[in-house]
Write a structure and sequence with these properties.
The protein has 132 residues and is of the alpha+beta class. The chain has two domains: 37 residues; 93 residues, K homology (KH) domain (GMP Synthetase, Chain A, domain 3, 2-Layer Sandwich). The protein contains three helices and six strands. The strands form two sheets. Strands 1-2-3 form a three-stranded antiparallel β-sheet, with no helix packed on it. The protein has a three-stranded mixed β-sheet with strand order 4-5-6, with helices on one face. The longest helix is centred in the middle third of the chain and has 23 residues. The radius of gyration is 17 Å and the shape is globular.
């Protein structure tokens, strides 16, 4: 990944192998415009998309189609210094009916995704599953 600072607290993030890119912005509560996702929003997005990907890998092996699965990650920032993420509350809705064994597979996949493992243990990471 390449990051280019473009001024006014905005960056351009470039995926080097493909050349695709997207901007980031500082949030309103931290001197930014808040017009687009902030770097900490991307951390929340990374957690949600990683969970969805790993769940997809595991459940599709069992023959289920997860198109329509929805993952929401709500980020909570510290009120005191240093400014940091203190909680990433995740909710996952699955579009298929699963037996107990498959549900366990989903829960384990979410909790063992690489991003979940990479985040500090100081960040609370509760997960709520909404079963079909």
């Amino acid at each position: 990944m390449i990051v280019k600072y473009e001024g006014a607290l905005r960056c351009k993030v470039i995926h080097e192998p493909t050349g695709t890119f997207f901007p980031t912005d500082a949030p309103l509560d931290n001197n930014g415009k808040g017009e687009i996702a902030s770097p900490t929003d991307l951390c929340a997005a990374a957690l949600g998309s990683c969970m969805a990907t790993i769940i997809g890998m595991q459940i599709e092996k069992l023959g289920f189609d997860l198109i329509g699965m929805r993952v929401e990650v709500h980020k909570e920032m510290s009120k005191s210094k240093p400014r940091r993420i203190i909680k990433l509350n995740t909710e996952i809705w699955l579009p298929v009916k699963l037996d107990d064994k498959a549900k366990h597979t989903v829960e384990l996949a979410a909790k063992t995704c690489p991003v979940h493992h990479s985040l500090s243990s100081e960040i609370e990471k509760p997960i709520c599953f909404h079963w079909h």
